[in-house]
Amino acid sequence: MGRVKIEIKRIENNTTRQVTFSKRRTGILKKTHELSVLCDAQIGLIIFSSNGKMYQYCTEPFRYIFI
Fold first, then answer.
1. What is the C-alpha separation between 25 and 31, in angstroms, rounded?
2. pTM of the entire structure?
């Protein structure tokens, strides 16, 4: 059995949306770290939640900052 394909749309339930955000945020931070280690890449990642809270990940040393 495979995974069920979900329709990509906004989750209306606030609690479910926050849980999904937390799980996916953890997953993308993990994948970002893995990519930086495996490929010796310098990565900067900034995520803003719907509440306006910022989460960030940056590999060391990060030589270039683009604004």
1. 10
2. 0.75
Superfamily of domain 14-64: Transcription factor, MADS-box (3.40.1810.10)
**Residue 65: its pLDDT value, please?**
57
The closest alpha carbon to 51, from 26, 14, 20, belongs to 14
Kindly report whether the peptide bond that precedes residue 61 is cis, defined as omega within 30 degrees of 0: yes
- C-alpha distance from residue 14 to each of 27, 50, 51, 53 (Å): 20, 10, 11, 16
Segments of the chain scoring below 50 in pLDDT: none
Query: Can you tell me the distance from the alpha carbon of 51 to that of 48, in angstroms, rounded to the nearest whole number?
Result: 8
